[in-house]
């Protein structure tokens, strides 16, 4: 209790049950960060901003604190409206009063309190975060981004000068850790990569702006800011205090959790999240900028841990752990910048043969980009993924467009170091040979995986298929069988996979 006497009088009073107009769970718990106080009362949490100014964050006046409380409420309504309730004034006569009628002396954000066990990070630590949940998160974040604002002002934050500002600042702030948790070669090579990226990929940044991928995003979308509460995924605690941290490329948001899961040695979970998100949005081009943001997010984690080494109030044992953590993040940031050998994998087989199941499993194991022709076709047609396509979506012309787009995306991403799985029937020799010739021209390795199963199994699978984006039905099977052109002697890259048997051992790819 002695430490409470060092707290401001308002916080001391807020730790008393009688301050609140509702029952509380005693003792009231106080959580402090360098910028806020959070009081946990049982059903509700109350958050106050400290009167601080760190440059990138300024809560130094009552007006600013009121403004940013309102902004925090407004912005978090988008992803967690069930948690963020209202901003209340605090007034003072002799005592402080919550929501009194006098002149406000402070403002507080009232939220519903949820258990820490609901956090995605806590779920991960308990072994409860699986691929299905991460796929669901991909759909939730895609919907979230679709509803976020963009305009000419927001789009300006996607310009190279703006994007590189915080990245260059990270390097300036971490030079002194070279020889400590950071090595000189890692520092120089990571910086050289980002310098070259900004110099050589100007058109990519212009395209991201032109296609409205710079939006009012979350800005801090890691596993501690995502929870599962009342069976609903909520995205909370977004950045309200700094526009450049929030007006970013959607890939900036996605990169946080993908990077985190890589560091936690579960890249398959990040892959489930990433592939689902991109399939929902159709933003496969965004993968071109993803390595930059993966490196950036990892570098920021390294920097924050490095800062602890300079704090005289931090115990030596904590500093040693922070140095180890920082070193691991610096190394990961550097690894994201390394060139990789890209590869194309073509799936082939009739509807119901298990192509997507095999492709999904392969993607999770190899961190591959999984592009389904059904998704490409529906994005081209401008219809929702789960909406059934009419005859106009399945014309010969539309099929040609779909396969052309599929191959274009595959080549674009594979030449930039991704393993890309093109998931389609690939039932025609001409389609397969075009992909083989294009891969050879770009000196890309290519593999064909042909999925098979007995015809009665295909019928059973198609008749029981629900909630999937594929539209194929049983009555198409005979036509598909008749149209399938056998593999030629030139197609020596074919691996047969019988999907009625265990898949993993059949997927041992060169």
TrEMBL record:
Keywords: ATP-binding, Kinase, Nucleotide-binding, Transferase. InterPro entries: Cell-binding_unc_protein, Kinase-like_dom_sf, P-loop_NTPase, Therm_gnt_kin. GO terms for molecular function: ATP binding; gluconokinase activity. PANTHER family: GLUCONOKINASE, SLR0207 PROTEIN. Pathway: Carbohydrate acid metabolism. This is gluconokinase. It comes from the Bacteria. It catalyses: D-gluconate + ATP = 6-phospho-D-gluconate + ADP + H(+). CDD domains: GntK.
């Amino acid at each position: 209790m002695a430490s409470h006497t060092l707290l401001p009088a308002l916080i001391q009073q807020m730790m008393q049950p009688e301050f609140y107009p509702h029952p509380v769970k005693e003792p009231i718990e106080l959580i402090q960060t360098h910028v806020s106080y959070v009081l946990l009362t049982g059903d509700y949490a109350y958050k106050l901003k400290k009167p601080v100014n760190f440059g990138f964050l300024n809560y130094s006046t009552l007006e600013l604190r009121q403004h940013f409380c309102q902004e925090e409420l407004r912005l978090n309504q988008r992803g967690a409206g069930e948690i963020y309730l209202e901003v209340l004034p605090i007034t003072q006569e002799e005592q402080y009063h919550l929501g009194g009628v006098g002149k406000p002396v402070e403002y507080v954000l009232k939220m519903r309190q949820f258990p820490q066990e609901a956090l995605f990070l806590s779920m991960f630590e308990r072994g409860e975060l699986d691929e299905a949940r991460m796929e669901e998160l991909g759909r939730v974040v895609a919907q979230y981004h679709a509803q976020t604002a963009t305009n000419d002002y927001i789009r300006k934050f996607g310009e190279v000068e703006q994007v590189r500002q915080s990245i260059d600042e990270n390097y300036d702030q971490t030079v002194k850790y070279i020889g400590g948790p950071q090595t000189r070669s890692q520092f120089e090579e990571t910086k050289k990569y980002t310098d070259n990226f900004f110099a050589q990929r100007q058109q990519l940044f212009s395209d991201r702006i032109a296609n409205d991928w710079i939006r009012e995003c979350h800005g801090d979308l890691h596993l501690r800011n995502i929870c599962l509460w009342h069976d609903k995924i909520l995205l909370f605690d977004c950045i309200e205090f700094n526009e450049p941290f929030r007006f970013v490329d959607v890939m900036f948001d996605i990169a946080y959790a993908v990077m985190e899961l890589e560091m936690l040695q579960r890249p398959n979970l990040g892959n489930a999240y990433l592939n689902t998100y991109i399939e929902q949005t159709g933003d496969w081009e965004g993968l071109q900028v993803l390595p930059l943001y993966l490196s950036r997010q990892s570098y920021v984690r390294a920097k924050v841990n490095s800062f602890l080494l300079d704090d005289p109030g931090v115990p030596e044992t904590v500093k040693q752990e922070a140095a180890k953590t920082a070193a691991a993040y610096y190394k990961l940031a550097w690894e994201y910048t390394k060139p990789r050998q890209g590869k194309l994998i073509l799936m082939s087989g009739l509807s119901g043969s298990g192509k997507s199941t095999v492709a999904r499993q392969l993607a999770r194991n190899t961190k591959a980009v999984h592009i389904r022709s059904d998704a490409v076709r529906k994005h081209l047609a401008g219809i929702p993924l789960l909406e059934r396509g009419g005859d106009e979506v399945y014309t010969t012309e539309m099929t040609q467009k779909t396969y052309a787009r599929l191959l274009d995306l595959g080549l674009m991403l594979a030449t930039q170091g991704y393993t890309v799985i093109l998931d389609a029937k690939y039932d025609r020799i001409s389609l397969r040979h075009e992909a083989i010739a294009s891969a050879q021209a770009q000196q890309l390795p290519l593999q064909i995986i042909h999925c098979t199963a007995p015809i009665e199994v295909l019928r059973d699978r198609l008749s029981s298929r629900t909630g999937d984006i594929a539209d194929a039905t049983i009555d198409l099977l005979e036509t598909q069988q008749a149209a399938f052109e056998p593999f030629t002697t030139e197609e020596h890259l074919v691996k047969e996979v019988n999907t009625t048997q265990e898949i993993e051992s059949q997927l041992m790819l060169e």
